Amino acid sequence: MLNEDKKLEKINLPLDANFQGIWKGQVIAILRSDWEGQKAGALVALDLATQAVSEVYTPGQKISILSVSFALENILVTIQENVQGKALALSLQEGKWVSKDLGLPEGGVLSIFSASGLRSNFFYTFNNIITPTSLNYYESVEGKPLTIQSAPA
Q1: Tally of CB atoms within 10 A around 140
Q2: Neighbours of 133 (CB within 10 A)
Q3: Model confidence, pTM
Q4: Are the CB atoms for 43 and 56 separated by under 8 Å?
Q5: Which of 32, 56, 67, 111 has the most crowded CB, counting CB atoms within 10 A?
Q6: What residues are paired with 79 via a beta bridge?
Q7: Rounded to whole angstroms, how far apart are CA atoms 11 and 8?
Q8: Kind of pairing, strands 96-101 and 84-93?
Q9: Which residues are within 8 A (CB) of 2 and not within 5 positions of it... i.e. 6 or more apart?
Q10: Strand pairing report for 84-93 and 109-113
């Protein structure tokens, strides 16, 4: 990574970590092996100022992280829990990572896209065996999803 002097600086992450991005001064990565007291599969944050490592989200035994996106006030994570898609909003509040279920449809394939660290809204698609694919819009973590278009049944 380039530091303020525009010189390369190594980020203190294991070589097998899956780098997701930088959000509010935190390097966000998914661990592929145990590291710094964190378990493989965990989503971790490395504070660029202090080099402190914190656990953002650790999936349980039947949970896996599918994707990580960044919004203005949250890290958006899609997970698969017992073969069911689910979306979470993770935020750093008073030094602790807090998780909130976004209340998006469950029981199918959920994909978040067009999220940006500059705004809180995003688009997502959802479908399952009985629900055709739909394009949806989510205004903010406090808002309600809006279906824009759905494929015919």
Answers
A1: 15
A2: 14
A3: 0.88
A4: yes
A5: 56
A6: 65, 86
A7: 9
A8: antiparallel
A9: 8, 9
A10: unpaired
